[in-house]
Write a structure and sequence with these properties.
- There is one protein chain.
- By secondary structure, this protein is of the alpha+beta class.
- The chain has helices at 2-8, 32-40, 42-50, 59-67, 90-104, 151-167, 173-191, 197-206, and strands at residues 12-13, 19-20, 72-78, 81-87, 125-127, 130-136, 143-149.
- The strands form three sheets. The chain has a three-stranded antiparallel β-sheet. It has a two-stranded antiparallel ribbon with strand order 1-2.
- The longest helix is centred in the C-terminal third of the chain and has 19 residues, at 173-191.
């Protein structure tokens, strides 16, 4: 607790080298934020794990719940970003959203109305830079869930490419290419596991 308090009260070092005191909250992008998120949201992990139809239920139990019109649930969380997957209908998804809000309330946390979305997998959603959506596979009648770079993530890396090119226009080409490659290589490595070929080709053409 003393170490956490020291982090929270350590202040912020500004660009001009001055230290600003901090009285509330954690600095944006601070290394303590993910740790505190994991501590605070462990109550959500435990709650979903203990839910009927949650991750502890076996395949037989989940199938039985589906036959009776009941929902099954999964939680996917990365620090303070999380998804609650609901195998059910919209009303059941709305009910679990209210349940999640009530679980977080004692921790002093509230769901962001702007960022909290209930959507169908066929309509898709963005998570950690990925677009996740179910499509019918071309040439078949089978449906598969595809993951590919989200539009927002693509726009962000395009903005970085523009910034580097404009800032470095008087530098030798080899230096410019080195700066671009350091950005593009990391971005492509992150999105390589998904269906990213078309996006990579577009980004290459744009660059």
């Amino acid at each position: 607790m003393s170490l956490v308090k020291a982090f929270l009260k350590s202040g912020i070092l500004s660009q001009d080298g001055q230290t600003q005191e901090t009285y509330t909250g954690t600095p944006q992008g601070g290394i303590l934020s993910p740790l505190l998120a994991n501590v605070a949201l462990s109550v959500l992990d435990e709650h979903v794990a203990g839910m009927a139809g949650g991750p502890k239920s076996d395949q037989r139990e989940r199938a039985k719940r589906r036959r009776h019109g009941l929902a099954n649930y999964r939680l996917i969380r990365y620090a303070d970003d999380f998804l609650v997957l609901v195998s059910g209908n919209r009303e059941q998804a709305e009910a679990v959203r209210a349940e999640v809000a009530s679980v977080l309330a004692p921790m002093g946390l509230t769901l962001s109305a702007e960022k909290t979305l209930i959507t169908h997998i066929d309509d898709g959603f963005d998570f950690l830079g990925w677009r996740i959506q179910r499509h019918i596979k071309r040439g078949t009648d089978k449906r598969y869930v595809y993951t590919y770079p989200a539009r927002k993530a693509l726009d962000a890396v395009k903005a970085k490419v523009k910034k580097i090119c404009r800032k470095s226009k008087n530098l030798p080409l080899t230096v410019l290419l080195h700066q671009l490659n350091s950005v593009l290589r990391g971005w492509c490595a992150y999105f390589r596991p998904g269906v990213s070929k078309a996006t990579f080709q577009y980004l290459g053409h744009f660059t």
